[in-house]
Write a structure and sequence with these properties.
The structure is a homotetramer.
Chain A lengths: L7 H9 L9 H13 L3 E4 L15 H13 L4 H5 L8 E7 L4 E7 L14 H4 L15 H16 L7 E8 L8 H6 L8 E7 L8 E2 L2 E2 L3 E10 L15 H13 L9 E10 L9 E10 L2 H21 L3 E10 L6 H13 L5 E2 L2 E2 L6 H10 L3 E7 L17 H15 L2
Parallel strand pairs in A: 3-4, 3-5, 5-14, 6-12, 7-13
Antiparallel strand pairs in A: 1-2, 2-4, 6-14, 8-10, 8-11, 9-10
Helix pairs in contact in A: 1-6, 6-12, 8-9, 10-12
Chain lengths: 420, 420, 420, 420
């Protein structure tokens, strides 16, 4: 195999500076698509590989326009964007080398609405590659994932790379809400896949260590909840109000106080609460964004029932109405043993000898929808972790990871592709 | 006295369509200033009559620019706006007729961040004069107050109007929030006033009835509160978070649960709660906008102490930090008997015979700062109410008032000016 | 008039040492009955003057037995107690002096479940007349009221006392929960009364001052609320529980956070919350004792509706059931002008010149049921306050009052009886 | 081996009828001690085998007297009770058969403050062996454990039983609050033990199945929390109160809303909340009984820190004081492989072939203190589960278990003792 000229860290940092949230990854996707073409891949994007019928909570037309405009200013290619209307920002690069199995690798591209730390102890700040889009941040390492995908593309497209069959690189939008994988599955892009692999950096796994399988994927639901009350003058006739803000506050406490489950690990979070418009008016409207997660489908079902009661009861307490809209779901999935074994061989082949069989992902990833589809159709699927020391937990404003992990991940995935 | 050509209802409706919140009343103030000049008043605006040193929570430069731009599109005069920089939107029209006492009348111009009802049962919707600025609304009748002020200006500027001395009409911004009166007081505009009168429509007083004195003005403080916690991935390491959203929710409940006071009527309201940025991140920041009111200064002081404890305790519960910023205060004031008596004569002189000596305002009005200054300097001050049947409580999205009250108020105030 | 040998303070202190809660005033009532007989009154007790059909939440048979046993040990007369079965502890002393109007005076006898302060700064502790029944206390001054009643009885029973007609002294149980007056009214004891007077000590009125009329009586309801959930092992299967404790906690916060009323003063209090049986079991039952008060019947009705929603919503949040039982109600009443005028003459006749026309009682008193009955039947009723400096608010564990007020009150009421 | 005349179910039902809570197991312990003597064991009780120096929250002298009196009425032997002063109700039966290792078996005897179901679908109700002590119940199967212990004692004391060395049967009080094992450990009763075994019925393991090792023991702390506020008249001067009830309610919600831990399973429960004394008094005192559990010592430490903040913050919110007293702790422990292997042989030897290597206990058991001491001193320790279908979760009022499991457990433990 030839040398590796691609500057992984530079690419990661370039992506880090331009974080784009779910279904608005216009600059990122354009960069990816352009590079894949350059490397000789057949590239499909947007509606060619996404079926959006059942996607919940797409960004508004205004938000799409604004994101495209911002991407344009950041140098995104107009032609690629034109092929990704309405938030359909998935990119797929495909290359064939004769007959042989189809290998699909998944990389996610979206960022989070997190305010990045400006502390000099935060490397992106110190080294001047912080987010240029205030209020958004690559706080989960998807900048790294995308850079890894492009590096893998470069290495595997090199004539000397030792693989045959079909290589399919999927750059997915909207992993963080759990909404980006399903439209790609619906479009059939996973139906003929023989082997599927996704990889995540970090997750508390130390630098240099490989986990052959991530486990502990949660089943989850993501809800948007609206409480509708009645406004009133807070001093003259507060008794005429129906306080949506207090309904939401009570509900937020109630959701966090939902009982732990003796049979399965669970998580709950009300991540956003927005209520009221003026200090001297009883708030007539409140919105919650929350998520419920559980290690089993049964426990999620219990949690969903209990959370629904909490929301309805909190509304009733204030004489308010409540609407609950499910904005996304995620499922659990299990890696196939065959993929784990191939990964172990791949790791040892490139000198990654610090290997653990499994490690909890501690959250979710909608790559599980892809894994399940591959498995349903008779293929094998896996999800591995590449260790990377972190400066702070995932999703924190001072999150950062050991950039050496980028090259480890590229070596691992490339080697995986080259294993018989 | 001459006929009354001014179309009060049309003016009120025109103002209703363009609601502007505190310190951003550019279109309204421009219209007022232009009209006063037309009627022959000496007009002073902005810094000429406002001393802004101690004003809290002024709108940002961006907000001012945006408001000016919107006002411009709605026909506001560029020259007037240029004389009202940085949210200094007060307007004063003055007219002298020989020696004699100075009479000051106060009218407030600002609107509220309330979403106006679109129901056909809401007159502004049915008659097509609803707010054209979504999310803002004249939900407290200041559109009526401003229209009344302009009608009073017209009538009293007529050569046949029976008054002497100095007439000073003060059109005040930012009554809601209690921040607009103080800079006008600080600028000295009340220092030489012999008689001061303000009027409010509605307040549950039935149409046609006059209350010679509003009482029950609350002492109040308006706070903005920021909770700062620590973000964390809600599934991987929720235990690393410091949940600012839960701190704010707990605080909101705690503030509303503050004890009633056995010695004085009180009010509390958390009108706005805004927390968190993403569903799967522990919220690291939350903002509350709240107000505390009490019928006596002592009771307000008790409420302030107790609310401070609630906020600090709620922060401590989550290991979060809290900052409390007082954004405005209001004081109580009492009308002078002499003003009430003059009002009674004025009312009877124009056939308003349905008179009550006093009526609770049920809220506050920072005209009290003006009243106190006038009284401190030896003048007499009053605050009266003009009955107006309401469709909904003040500050509700379907608030509206009986427009016949407009003419009653104009007759009353004009007659008041003409009483010896 | 003769000298006044009765030792008021000693009697008050004796009563203070033996506080008895609602409907369990066996020792107190026995002492009262015996003394009235001694003074020549016709004495009726228990079922002779109480109709208990509609009384809510009477003490249990066990509680009555225990109270009687404790009273017996404290020297209560067995014969009197035998005439007061089932908590019927009212006592009425009557004396006739020829024809003439019927004058009824009311005194209340019950104590509170409050733990008395042991501080040396608390007079009963320092002077060794503290409660001997741990957990109960005369924390509202009814020990004083009863002592005053007995002193008034002594003075008016003296041959030289200047009154004619019928004098009826009513010693009432269970004022604190608002349940003792109604059965006496139901029994008809107020039906022929021409003039009725009740008196309360303290209420923030300074020592020596007389308020001719207490106002601000609240309308109220007193509720007992039971939440029923489902127990479960708190570690093994917490998800199987239905947490009644959390329902009650949420409800308590929700009740205290009920909006103030712009039209009437209100009060809310959850005074007792008792939930759960073991630390490692999800609580399956919780009880709340709460009260709702409002200055008007309308506002109480609003409060009742809103509180009901709060309780039902809090139950729903936890999947629990809720039962609400109203345990007592109180009503407002207004003193007749004629009674106030007679009181003023009475006060001045005995040198009590520090007089105010009215003063807020700041709470309630079910003497209002008696007042209303008297007024319905054509009589006149009044409720006055005798000032007494306090060491702490009513119902606090270190509550105490200036004992000089006792004699003031005796003089006032005696003089009232002697006014034509 | 001889026949088995002992009536296991009858003994279990007899014990079920007389449930006694922690450190008050006087009737149970007396029955056990008498039976062990009858079978030829050397019996030590109370202070002979308990060192109480560091025991927290012992029952009061009054509670001990009351429990002894109740036990006496239920037939407990006066002499045994005399040897168990102050709640020291542990019983140890020992038998030697020549030299050889010391085998200790642990059985727990205490019941819970749970109200037993009266439903006919609840077997103890239908078959008339329900709790005769209202408000207490064997809702965790310790009645079964004690009956098993006595049956094991009978079988192993038979001359034909195939074991040598020393057999020590430990009947432990107060397992439920995690306070009974430590004083026995402190007294040295485990110091010379070569092999230790404890067994629990149920825990969601199906009837007939053996789990060689219970895992998932939680680290835990049990707290009693007292909030001290200030009483005040709820209507006259509520603002003077410091509401301990609201502090406790807020704290209860806050504790239940503590974040899940991404690194370890946790549990929280506020099982008891008791606050306030009268409906019309601001509550000046509130008590919480709560427990915190975590799968690791680190996670427990995080939970303890966070809960402390919650309690302090909730107190601060109300201007109240808070005292936190730790009433008990439990630790995790792991069974030794040697014990599991011996158990497997023992199970198969008596036809119990449905075996799983491990099963989550789902809670805690302070037998872990004994296990740790044995292991520290060089011995081997184990904790196994005997499957028993349940009618309801542990600690529920309708908890019951398949009584066939009793004999399975006796066979298993006897066989364990007889394995070389």
């Amino acid at each position: 195999m030839t040398a590796f000229p691609y500057d992984l860290k530079a690419m990661r940092r370039s992506l880090h500076r331009f974080p784009e949230p779910a279904f608005l990854e216009y600059r990122t996707a354009s960069v990816v698509a352009a590079r894949l073409v350059e490397l000789g891949f057949d590239v499909r994007v947007g509606p060619e590989i996404m079926a959006m019928e059942n996607v919940q909570a797409l960004p508004s037309a205004e938000a799409v326009l604004a994101a495209q405009e911002a991407a344009r200013l950041a140098g995104a290619d107009e032609n690629w964007m034109a092929r990704m209307p309405g938030g359909q920002t998935a990119v797929c690069g495909e290359m064939r080398r004769g007959d042989g199995p189809v290998l699909a690798l998944r990389f996610d591209m979206d960022a989070l609405p997190v305010l990045e730390s400006e502390s000099e102890s935060h490397l992106p700040a110190a080294e001047r590659f912080s987010s240029e889009r205030t209020g958004f941040m690559h706080a989960c390492g998807h900048d790294g994932h995308t850079a890894i995908g492009l590096a893998v593309a470069q290495k595997l497209s090199h004539p000397t790379a030792a693989w045959t069959g079909t290589l399919r690189l999927i750059f997915q939008p909207a992993e963080e809400g759990g909404r980006g994988a399903q439209p790609i599955v619906s479009a059939g892009l996973l139906d003929d896949v023989d082997t599927f692999l996704a990889l995540h950096l970090g997750c508390q796994l130390p630098s240099g260590r490989v986990a052959l399988m991530a486990d502990g994927f949660f089943w989850s639901e993501k809800w948007s909840v609206r409480f509708s009350g009645r406004a009133a003058h807070a001093a003259m006739m507060p008794e005429e109000g129906r306080n949506a803000l207090l309904a939401a506050a009570t509900a937020a406490l109630g959701v966090h106080a939902l009982p732990r489950d003796g049979q399965a690990d669970t998580r709950v979070n009300v991540g956003v609460l927005s209520a009221g418009r003026a200090r001297n008016v009883i708030a007539d409207e409140a919105l919650l964004e929350l998520e419920l997660r559980a290690a089993t489908q049964d426990a999620l079902s219990r949690l969903v029932d209990a959370a629904r009661r909490v929301l309805q009861g909190a509304a009733l307490m204030q004489g308010a109405e409540v609407e609950i809209a499910c904005q996304g779901k995620s499922v659990s999935a299990t890696s196939d043993v065959a993929v784990c074994e191939r990964l172990e061989r791949a790791a040892r082949a490139v000198g990654l000898e610090d290997i653990v069989p499994n490690w909890p992902i501690g959250g979710g990833d909608d790559a599980t929808f892809m894994m399940r589809r591959v498995q349903e159709k008779g293929g094998k699927a896996g999800y591995c972790l590449m260790g990377a020391d972190l400066t702070a937990p995932h999703h924190a404003g001072n999150f950062d990871f050991d950039e050496d992990a980028l090259e480890h991940a590229v070596r691992l995935m490339t080697s995986f592709a080259e294993q018989a």
